[in-house]
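[READ THE FOLD]
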Amino acid sequence: MNKVRGSAAEAVADIPDGATLAVGGFGLSGVPEVLVRALYAQGASGLEVVSNNCGVDGRGLGVLLAAGRIARVTGSYVGENKEFAQQYLSGELEVELTPQGTLAERLRAGGAGIPAFYTPAGVGTQVATGGLPWRYAADGTVALASPPKETRDFAGRPHVLEHGITTDFALVRAWRGDRHGNLVFRHAAANFNPLAAMAGRVTVAEVEELVEPGGLRPNEVHLPGVYVQRIVALSPREAADKHIERRTASASSTRGTVRS
């Protein structure tokens, strides 16, 4: 039951080329930065990533993207990653964009063993009818477009069929965790992390604080250890290394207020 690994490098050593990978985080909040950088050092390529977004230039999944290690992304937000836009528009990267709530439910459904579900999100758009550019050709034409999806009426309202997502591996970040893999997420880091962890067949979690079994009260556990196979304890420096995607100063204060 001791799922702790000696290092991030050890925890991601067996992720192969072409693996599917669910990654937690939203923007730069709750991103498993240490595991991502360990995977970069490990060298796996041709990865198919499922994540809300693909980091930013030089941080998070943006590190793998800039190195040409990611072949496909399923996400809901492009953000301000210039490298992502360049690779997508030039045909180097295949991208499946999906509504944010749908992406969250697809991950949760996959982790819960639900193969598919119906949702009203996307009805009447190319999400349902197909034609969204998944991959461009070098000349700017659409090389691969999304297929149409099955729709069905429930109580007189149309819904579109979406499939649950499971991946070979998942990388997530938690505030606290124990050696059995039980995890607690803090504030905005409780975004896609629990859902990504559920979807991975092998889930690796980096934790800011590692406690012994019994150190977490049952009613504060957000994700039970059954979903987690490997734990990496961060150093104090690694735990404190948190970046803000965009900083703005409040005009109401002469000193300014930092917001993310």
Remarks:
- The longest helix spans residues 100-111.
